[in-house]
Amino acid sequence: MSRSVEALLALVEALGGVVRTARLVEHGFRRTTLDAATASNALSRPRRGWIASENADPLLVQAARHGVVVTCRTQAARLGLWLHDAGGLPHVAVSPNAASGRPIAVKKHWGAPLVPRHPDSLVDGIENVLASLAECESFEHGLATWESALSKSLVTIDGLRGYAWRPAARRILERAMPFADAGLETYLRERLRWLRLPIRVQIWIAGHRVDTLVGDRLVLQIDGSHHVGSQRTEDIRHDADLMLMGYHVIRMSYTQVMFEWPTVQETVMRAIAQGLHRPR
Fold first, then answer.
1. Computed from CA positions of residues 244, 256, 192, 169, in that sequence, does the dihedral angle turn out positive or negative?
2. Which portions of the chain are predicted below pLDDT 50?
3. How far is CA 144 from CA 31, 137, 177, 270, in A?
4. Cβ atoms of residues 51 and 38 within 8 Å
5. H/E segment holding residue 222
């Protein structure tokens, strides 16, 4: 393998594994070098005008091949954002000049993007991802993913306010908070809004954060899969500290919040009816 081909391979990998041919030419590579690399199967051509390495993400290769952009739930998952459920068809943004050919099993998002896409883009920017999610998911599910993006500092509330959102996204933005640590905390807060009590998330009490504080004294904690071993021991100690300080603690599991919400809600309602959310 020639040094020029080796340098080409290194650049393609550095640029994400799937690159427009025009970008490689701009970096000084001759088209004869590109032809030599594809002829030796060191690189492939998913579509005219695109080059891919052997180690390229198959999803990005397919996006280049069909002229689409990865967006919505699929890109949110790639960014590590919280989603209500995993799996399903890939979500892609489709432009009027998308490549034709063999149909692919995807969820297509049509229409102009919130933020213009560069011709090199195979994945959507975070603002376009959130815009698609707001239209594609239920309000509760979309809000949880938006708050996950805020929690990871991928976006800010002030920054998001500068865009011309559609109605579904504007509604989410009005209610979004930057402090929710996981999607379940979003669900908890939104599902208890009707109580018209102060509900605060991720606040520090007795040296640790609590998931949700209802009123002045009712602490709601959600136990995930990591609440075992030393973490569980620390949780028990913190619960004792909270109770000695006059707080009442209700712990619930992921399964309860996701699949047994009526039971959780009834427990919280009974606690409030007994005044456990107020100082004593």
1. positive
2. none
3. 47, 10, 10, 26
4. yes
5. strand 218-223
Average pLDDT, the chain: 91
State how far the Cα of 35 lies from the Cα of 117, in Å rounded to an integer: 28
Long-range contacts of the stretch 68-71 (C-beta < 8 A, 24+): 68/92, 68/93, 68/94, 68/95, 68/98, 68/106, 68/108, 69/93, 69/95, 69/117, 69/121, 69/122, 69/123, 69/124, 70/122, 70/123, 70/124, 71/109, 71/123, 71/124, 71/128, 71/129, 71/132
Residue 271 has what pLDDT? 97
Q: Please name the residues in contact with 248: beta carbons below 8 A apart, sequence gap of 6 or more.
A: 217, 218, 219, 271, 276, 277
CB-based contacts of 214, cutoff 8 Å, min separation 6: 192, 195, 197, 198, 199, 220, 268, 272, 277
Asked if 150 and 156 count as a contact pair (C-beta separation under 8 A), the reply is: yes
**Partners of 18 in beta bridges:** 52
- Residue with tokens 């456990």, as numbered in its chain: 276
pTM for the whole thing?
Answer: 0.88
> Which among 279, 271, 217 has a CA at the least distance from the CA of 247?
217
In sequence order, what are the residues at sequence separation of 6 or more whose Cβ sits closer than 8 angstroms to the Cβ of residue 244?
none
Q: Are 78 and 101 in contact (CB under 8 A)?
A: no
